[in-house]
């Protein structure tokens, strides 16, 4: 089914509450009891690492139903240099609109914008079954490794996509998540008090 009546554009400060609420709804009880992704979005708003032109909302019939944000990151190359890249996440789609293709539309649109802005490489943590459809591969295939895991270990959720093919040819190195992706559980709990109460559930398939 062809999707229509949607618009993708950079979000504005007035959109932040809706974005945070949307993200909380999208991730609640998915990877852990409750969610932290909405607090990550909150932490990055206004930070210099956040790329304003790639902090994007997706609207359907004037209602915001999706969000993705890109952040400046880097690969520490084994040769001693630093390679500037980008990461993104969370990618959020309102539960009512999930599994309808909107996530893929928002992702592809954002990657095209990132390419047009001159970014060459994206590194993320995510599900290869989903992101592999959009050109992402396990980072170790390109000799780029995730700092949070032993280097010799294949990390199936650490993924890379070369927006400019060949950028990583002959290079190897390590990627570490930008500091804004680290959350304090007490700060999350305090932030969460401003939202409507929701039950935290321990469900099969959660990571934590």
Name its key features:
single chain, alpha+beta, Aminopeptidase
In brief:
One of its GO terms (molecular function) is acyltransferase activity, transferring groups other than amino-acyl groups. The protein is an alpha+beta fold. It is built from five helices and nine strands, in the order βααβββαβαββββα.
Topology:
Layout: E1 6-10, H1 16-27, H2 37-44, E2 50-60, E3 63-77, E4 82-93, H3 102-116, E5 121-125, H4 128-131, E6 137-138, E7 144-146, E8 158-162, E9 173-175, H5 185-192
Shape-level CATH architecture = 3-Layer(aba) Sandwich
The amount of beta strand, in percent, is 25-35%
What letter string, H or E per element, gives the SSE order?
A: EHHEEEHEHEEEEH
Name the shape in a single word.
globular
Oligomeric state of shown chains: single chain
Spatial separation of the terminal alpha carbons: 35 Å
CATH fold assignment = Aminopeptidase
Number of domains: 1
Q: Which stretches of 5+ consecutive residues score pLDDT under 50?
A: none
Overall radius of gyration: 17 Å
Characterize the biggest β-sheet.
6 strands, mixed
Task: Please work out how many helical segments DSSP would assign.
Answer: 5
Instruction: Output mean pLDDT.
Output: 96
Overall strand count:
9
Helical percentage: 10-25%
CATH C-level: Alpha Beta
Which class of secondary structure composition applies to the elements? alpha+beta
- The CATH superfamily label reads Gcn5-related N-acetyltransferase (GNAT)
């Amino acid at each position: 089914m062809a999707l229509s009546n949607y618009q993708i554009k950079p979000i504005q400060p007035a959109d932040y509450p809706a974005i945070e609420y949307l993200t909380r709804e999208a991730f609640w009880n998915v990877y852990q009891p409750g969610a932290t992704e909405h607090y990550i979005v909150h932490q990055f708003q206004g930070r210099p690492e956040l790329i304003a032109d790639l902090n994007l909302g997706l609207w359907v019939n004037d209602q915001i139903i999706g969000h993705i944000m890109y952040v400046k990151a880097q690969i520490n190359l084994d040769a001693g240099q630093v390679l500037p890249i980008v990461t993104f996440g969370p990618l959020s789609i309102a539960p009512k609109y999930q599994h309808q293709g909107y996530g893929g539309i928002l992702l592809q649109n954002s990657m095209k914008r990132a390419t047009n802005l001159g970014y060459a490489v994206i590194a993320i943590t995510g599900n290869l079954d989903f992101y592999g459809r959009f050109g992402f591969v396990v980072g170790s295939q390109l000799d780029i490794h995730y700092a949070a895991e032993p280097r010799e270990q294949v990390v199936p959720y650490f993924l890379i996509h070369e927006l400019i093919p060949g950028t990583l040819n002959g290079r190897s190195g390590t990627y570490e998540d930008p500091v804004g992706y680290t959350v304090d559980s007490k700060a999350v709990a305090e932030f969460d008090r401003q939202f409507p109460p929701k039950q935290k559930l321990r469900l099969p398939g959660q990571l934590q």
